[in-house]
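User: ok so my PI wants both of these folded by tonight, can you help

Assistant: No problem, let's get them done. Here's the first:
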Amino acid sequence: MKWRKLTLNTTTEALDYLGAIAMDLGLEGFEIEDNVPLSEEDKKRMFIDILPTLPPDDGSARVSFYVSEDTDTDKLLGDIKREADDYSELCDFGKMTFDVGLTDDRDYINNWKKYFKSFRVNERLVIKPTWEKETPLITEGDTVIEIDPGTAFGTGAHETTKLCLIAMSKYLKKGELFMDMGCGSGILSIAAVLFGAGKAFGFDVDDNASRISIENAGINKIPAEYEKDFDGCDIEGIKDGSILFATGNLLDSKDIPHALEDKKFDFIAANILADIIIPLAPYARKLIKDGGIITCSGILTTKEESVVKALRESGFEIIETEHMGEWSGVTARASV
């Protein structure tokens, strides 16, 4: 299969905003080229003897998106530019010119893997790609999640996923019922079970993500099942220590899907986008127990206040906010 590679000429300042736009438009991953000098941490994680020589950093960057060959690229480029206009007062997006090319399926699927290495999220959690043979940073007592994201979003390396994982390691209790709104590669549901959750339910609007989540659960020796939509979900029937993944969109209806009615979760994670978290907040409150915890990320710091406001208006009390780069993580407790 052939894929179209759309390469956007932009600025390093705009990268986080373009990441949010890509997620909003359902683009399943992107590639960044820039001349930003490598940090000491970057150098240690590259595992090579001769470091690349970069030209002077002029603030420019190139972002490449991969889409199917039959995608209407003119419409997609127009959508990207339209959403970028919403952030134009916050940063400089640069030239915003595009190049369009073709690439083989094997190039798109596999070439990025050489840049994804094991890394430590915090003192108790390490994320490891399935293809990495040796992982010296793993120590006794670590919780290790093996992941192969395929074409789904979520290696755990992005700040938004880290923010959720760190909040989960703090607040998730053993035996709790966990929900992952927008499961991506399944990494948060997998982490929840490894942290001791009794059972987990994850869903995504992208059916490909739900299926990849099943595979990643298996890699981590966690039993998982799949339902094509909410109607077939049996939350009560999820076995202890296992995960149910489904495809669905809570925002398709004003009402909670029948299969989720009267179901109350102890902990909800939502690593999506501020503009999706805000309308989802009332649904989350209906689906969580009094005193239950929700942790949200995928929130640009410029939209943190809007998310906090939506959570409070939906019946949550904010207990913590954390920041990494341009991203915010908000953790709240359902009011009793």
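One down. Here's the second:
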Amino acid sequence: MIVYNVTCNMLKSISSEWLDWMKNEHIPEVMQTGCFISFKILKLLSNESTDEDINYAIQYTCENIDTLERYRRDFGPILMQKTIAKYGESVFAYRSVLEIID
């Protein structure tokens, strides 16, 4: 199993609206691609950020690396552009790929 982790940093002042958008629009769109079998939303409790910003990690699980690559090729760029169009530079996201070992 593969985990596609997207960690997002933003100002606390927009975090409630962003989280609502993620839960009700973005994540449902990602899941509708059929590439992922589950997801988790996590809030980072300890980090090196200031009192003004906050970090969340969204972890999408898929069966294998080929499925993830299909998502990244066929769906990821479009969905990423929607996020950029909505939030611009006010949300910084970085992505990592992990393999579930046990």
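Helices lie at 12-32, 65-74, 76-87. The chain has a mean pLDDT of 94. Good luck tonight!
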